[in-house]
Amino acid sequence: MSNIIYIGYDFKVTPLQPGVEILIAELGYAGFESFVETEDGVIAYIQKEEWNNEILNDVQILNSEEFKIDFTFNEIEQTNWNEEWEKNFNPIVVDDVCSVRAPFHEKPNTKYDIIIEPKMSFGTGHHETTHMMIQHILKNDFTNKSVLDMGCGTGVLAILAEIKGAKPIDAVDYDNWCYLNSIENVERNNCKNITVIEGDASVLKGKKYDIIIANINRNILLNDMEAYVSCLNKGGLLFLSGFYNDDIPVIQEVCEKYLLKFDEKLERNHWVALKFLN
Ligand SMILES: C[S@@+](CC[C@H](N)C(=O)[O-])C[C@H]1O[C@@H](n2cnc3c(N)ncnc32)[C@H](O)[C@@H]1O
Fold first, then answer.
1. 81 and 136, same structural domain?
2. Which of 31, 49, 72, 152 has its CA 20 to 30 A from that of 96?
3. 3 state SS of 276
């Protein structure tokens, strides 16, 4: 899967308000495959044969409704994604304990070392929400706990859960690219207790977990909360991220409706990651 050459569109978006990660997620749902954040916006890529009027329509709706974006299209000849990523992706270290790096970076001197081939999936640890979810996992006991990583992206959180002793672990993502990329990263990190599943909350029927980690976005979390709660064991933990400080009341209201007890908040650049007890 390495050194894929893409011929496609270079679609440059300038967000006029904060929320670039949500914009990236929305563009991802619309069909764009990869994103590079630049100083004046986002470059979103899509293969030429995938591009159609429906996607253009989705972008125009996004533009008019939520984001007030200013976008231009550029057809590009080809991109070597691994080279792009090598230019844009530096290792990160969370709380001096856990590093997240690409295979081409030198091995760091940290207790936990996660290797992620980022390619086109979200979850390199650079984003505030991933960073805070890593902090939550580091601070909590995962030994022998069954875990669900909902919206696993690159699989980074599931991999850390396994390193912290969790088993078994289900890592679920509805995006085929994330599903394939998570499988690759799970193997790369020699994880033995993670099952990667392609799907959405509908795959959770009949399952039970001690801990659920879900870093997605406000609307999907609200929509799927009932499914999460119904598969969370009594006494279990729920970690949620992918939303802003301002979204806390609505998230908390829904969690309390399901009798979850708020326990801890982490915050970085207005993004938050919450811990609830069942
Ligand atoms: C913000 S990323 C988080 C990735 C990774 N867990 C992390 O913390 O860096 C959200 C992920 O959720 C996935 N996703 C979005 N909606 C979903 C849904 N309804 N069911 C399953 N996965 C979903 C996206 O494909 C994306 O990979």
1. no
2. 152
3. strand
Q: How do residues 131-164 score in pLDDT, each as one tens digit?
A: 999 999 999 999 999 999 999 988 999 999 999 9
User: Does the beta carbon of 155 sit less than 6 angstroms from any atom of ligand 1?
Assistant: no
Spell out a b/e string for 162-189, using b for 16 or more CB atoms within 10 Å of the CB, else e. bbbebbebbbbbbbebbbbbbbbbbeeb
Structural domain includes residue 95: no
Ligand 1 midpoint to CA 251 (Å): 17
Report how far ligand 1's centroid is from the alpha carbon of 200 (Å).
Answer: 9
- CATH number for 49: 3.30.70.980
Domain boundary among 57, 85, 113: 85
> 243: Cβ below 6 Å to ligand 1?
no
Which residues carry a binding-site annotation for S-adenosyl-L-methionine?
A: 130, 151, 173, 215
Q: Which residues form the domain of 43?
A: 5-85
Confidence bin at 7 (pLDDT 50/70/90): very low
ipTM value? 0.99
Is the model's pLDDT at 78 over the cut of 90? no
Within a domain: 106: no
